[in-house]
Design a protein that fits this description.
The chain has about 280 residues and is mainly alpha-helical. It is built from 8 helices and 2 strands; from the N terminus they run ααααβααβαα.
Length: about 280
């Protein structure tokens, strides 16, 4: 889970911070800060594992093992979430780690989800199917490139566009739900194509998504917060594919809603402000 989305300056993955010490699926440190040129083993192990999970998802889809492919994408999300944090905690951030993380994100959250969706449901749509898959892949590439160029200048509270890990989670959960309920991919090809292309377009949109980077995980919290977290885990265990799909689909919808609310607030403030020269 970049882009729900590693290292260096971090938002994907769609994963959205990363590890190896490079840019995460979304978020990081200013480019102006000089990093060591060496290669550190620990954070890059997690990045390599995330890359392998994405590669394994493609192999599983080609073999017709779609549930394993979906699970591999979610595994890549978890690994991508650790590498950046480990790099920062151990002070092992490097330029190599940042670039490696971006390439890993492209495979795990850009190429793998598109190919899994294509193998499961989009192949029967002909040109429309591969077009939807390409829109998603291109959207992930553009999302990561834009993120990397905005490191150090973007508002850390928000991601611009849906993080690639979150977009990948929507596709993976959709496939998982279908396989879990014995739904033939060809029968829902148009719906999956809509989700795939829509996720790709949301990644390159200007909608703002909460990054949760300023969330303090070290401070004290009320007891009820722990109760809510426990209930959240229980809900996921009840029906993992449906709960995960609803969670990430809701996050994808939160971007347009949040952007609309913020624009209305700005317009309201402008209307209340007196015009120049008037009092």
């Amino acid at each position: 889970m970049t882009d729900l989305h590693q290292h260096a300056p971090q938002p994907s993955s769609e994963p959205e911070t990363s590890a190896s010490g490079g840019h995460p699926a979304d978020g990081g440190n200013p480019r102006g800060r000089r990093r060591r040129r060496g290669i550190y083993l620990l954070p890059n192990l997690f990045t390599t594992a995330a890359l392998f999970a994405g590669f394994y998802a493609v192999l599983s889809a080609n073999a017709g093992r779609f549930e394993a492919a979906a699970l591999a994408i979610f595994a890549a999300m978890l690994l991508d979430g650790f590498d950046g944090r480990i790099a920062r905690m151990t002070n092992t951030q490097t330029d190599f780690g940042a670039e490696f993380d971006s390439l890993s994100d492209m495979v795990a959250f850009g190429v793998a989800p598109a190919l899994v969706a294509y193998e499961w449901a989009l192949g029967g749509l002909g040109k429309l199917g591969w077009l939807a898959a390409f829109v998603y892949t291109a959207g992930a590439a553009l999302r990561l490139a834009r993120f990397n160029t905005q490191i150090g200048i973007a508002d850390k509270r928000y991601f611009q566009g849906l993080p690639s890990p979150s977009a990948a989670a929507i596709i993976a959960a959709s496939v998982w739900i279908g396989v879990d309920n014995d739904i033939a991919g060809g029968s829902v090809g148009l719906l999956v194509g809509l989700f795939t292309a829509g996720a790709g377009l949301l990644m390159v949109s200007n909608f703002r998504y909460h990054s949760f980077k300023l969330l303090d995980l070290h401070g004290q919290v009320p007891f009820m917060v722990l109760v809510v977290v426990m209930l959240g885990f229980a809900l996921v265990v009840l029906d993992p594919p449906i709960v995960l799909f609803l969670l990430f689909f809701g996050y994808a919808l939160s971007g347009p809603v949040l952007t609309l609310i913020q624009r209305r607030r700005r317009r309201g403030r402008r209307r209340r402000e007196p015009a120049p020269g008037r009092r």
